[in-house]
TrEMBL record:
Name listed for the protein in its UniProt record: Periplasmic polyamine-binding protein of ABC transporter
Keywords of the record: Periplasm, Signal, Transport
Any Pfam family matching the protein: SBP_bac_6
Subcellular location: Periplasm
Length: 387
């Protein structure tokens, strides 16, 4: 049985290079721009083996979700204000090479979905011919059903295909603490005064505070939670660092005892450092999902190719769900649809991937907010950070 420890990173990179070698051809059957690390090489190899023909595949990784969103804007000519260095120094055009060719699918985080829809960067998917769509758990179907303003709508169009998901976790130094954090309430413990680092994201910080107070991450009227500002100010006193890029470094060097951040970044850290542990807060946490979206194309060219349908369908098959959950530092949305006897103990016995059902029921995606509600959150966040 494959385990994470048996996966050699170097071999994986070489395998990915071999799998993508067919993309030199100009006649590519499927182009995919994916978030680096979100799809393991084993999955691409298995996909090839499941195909009866040998189509030309072009899978290219990108480092960050914001880069992928920018590419969607570039393809639609909606990044006029983003001048590349080559435009200011015409003699050196190689500094900023042209963007990749328009892809069939691009990875997008669910939190970016509303903006992509509103800006007309992507188009809805017709998944009636993708067999496994009907098997996808309702929570993930609901996540991608939106109106044309990007708001959730039960009978809305389908704007993406979720393929992996994760959570916001509490990571801690087990060698520094003589107790174990279990829930959001522990962040207010005086023993952690000036000993916390967390992601610099107002939806996450305000959301976990709302959860601590017994409310939803997606509360629309913050004025109805009178204790919110007081508790946020108290939490702010506990936090030593806010950073969305470097919140884990202080934990690694022992400058803080606790970090709040995303599971796909914390899980690999745990495998390398035995002193770092993590928990899913017992009262529930925020969920995130990586999604395949289809970039906007000209009218009449929006039908999915046969190979594109096969790729989406394959990502939701049991074989793919097991590979993603084992090697992508996240879980497949189909993982609880698989016979538990067929799932690796490394997944089943990992409470950060196979979350306790009682806790999971209390977890929430960060839903898109109206402009008015979003302003409430942003203004409160500015007030807290400037205090």
């Amino acid at each position: 049985m494959l385990t994470r420890r048996s996966f050699l990173t170097t071999a994986g990179i070489l395998a990915l290079g071999n799998l993508l070698s067919s993309c030199a051809s100009s006649n590519v059957d499927l182009r995919v721009l994916l978030l680096q690390g979100s799809i393991p090489p084993q999955l691409l190899k298995a996909f090839r083996q499941n195909l009866s023909s040998q189509p030309s595949l072009d899978f290219k990784p990108q480092g960050q979700l914001k880069d992928l969103f920018s590419l969607l804007e570039t393809w639609q000519g909606k990044d006029e204000n983003k001048k590349g260095l080559w435009q200011e120094i015409p003699k050196i055009p190689v500094i900023n090479p042209p963007p990749p060719s328009l892809s069939d699918f691009v990875t997008l985080g669910d939190i970016w979905l509303a903006d992509a829809i509103k800006k007309d960067l992507i188009e809805p998917l017709n998944l009636t011919q993708v067999e496994n769509w009907d098997k996808l758990p309702s929570r993930w179907q609901t996540l991608v059903k939106r109106n044309k303003q990007g708001q959730l709508q039960d009978n809305g169009l389908i704007w993406g295909a979720p393929y992996r998901w994760g959570t916001t976790l509490i990571a801690y130094r087990s060698d520094k603490l003589d107790w174990q954090p279990q829930d959001w309430s522990d962040l207010w413990d005086q023993r952690l005064s000036d000993r916390i680092s967390m992601v610099d994201q107002y939806r996450e910080v305000i959301g976990l505070t709302l959860k601590y107070l017994g409310h939803s991450y997606n509360t629309e009227n913050l004025a109805q939670v009178p204790q919110l500002k007081t508790e946020l100010l108290a939490l702010n006193e506990q936090v030593k660092y806010y950073s969305s890029d470097h919140y884990l470094q202080p934990l690694l060097v022992g400058d803080v005892d606790v970090s709040v951040g995303w599971s796909n970044e914390i899980i690999p850290l745990i495998t390398k450092n035995r002193n770092i542990k993590a928990v899913v807060p017992t009262s529930g946490t925020s969920l995130w999902s990586d999604i395949w979206v289809k970039p906007k194309v000209k009218e009449g060219q929006n039908e999915l190719s046969e190979t594109a349908k096969q790729w989406l369908n394959f990502c939701w098959q049991p074989q793919a769900a097991k590979i993603i959950s084992l090697f992508a530092d996240a879980a497949s949305p189909m993982i609880d649809r698989i016979d538990k006897k067929e799932v690796s103990p490394e997944i089943m016995n990992n409470p950060l991937l196979f979350i306790d059902e009682t806790i999971f029921e209390q977890c929430e995606f960060l839903e898109p907010l109206s402009t008015e509600v979003q302003e409430q959150y942003i203004n409160l966040w500015k007030e807290i950070r400037n205090s």
